[in-house]
Write a structure and sequence with these properties.
Blueprint lengths: L12 E7 L2 H13 L4 E8 L6 E9 L3 H12 L2 H11 L17
Antiparallel strand pairs: 1-3, 2-3
């Protein structure tokens, strides 16, 4: 593997991430590369008269786009979202917890 692998610009590339700050894009780039997904960071230059907009985008090969998107979505989840997802995966833990029905007559 090359020291800095990049997708070939002649391949079909897909934009999978955009950020205003290059530092955030570098974190995502490292995350993707740690998963074996080659990517490239490119500037976004949108010339506007009033509010100049810029930033960076990450592109990957078309065949890696779905996996890259999944990795990025997992990275962006908050701890609260992760806890809710884990709770949904383990249904029935609250049932039969030994709680008594106070309205039940002996």
């Amino acid at each position: 593997m090359a020291a800095n692998p990049k997708p070939d610009p002649n391949e079909k590339l897909v934009r999978v991430f955009e950020a205003e700050q290059e530092s955030e894009a570098m974190v995502v780039r490292g995350l993707l590369e740690s998963q074996g997904i080659d990517c490239d960071v490119a500037p976004i230059d949108l010339a506007q008269d009033v509010f100049p907009v810029g930033g960076v985008m990450i592109v990957v090969r078309e065949e890696d786009a779905a996996r890259a998107t999944q990795v990025i979505e997992e990275y962006r989840r908050t701890p609260k979202e992760e806890a809710e997802e884990e709770a949904e995966e383990t249904p029935g833990e609250g049932a039969g917890s030994g709680e008594e029905d106070i309205n039940e007559k002996p």
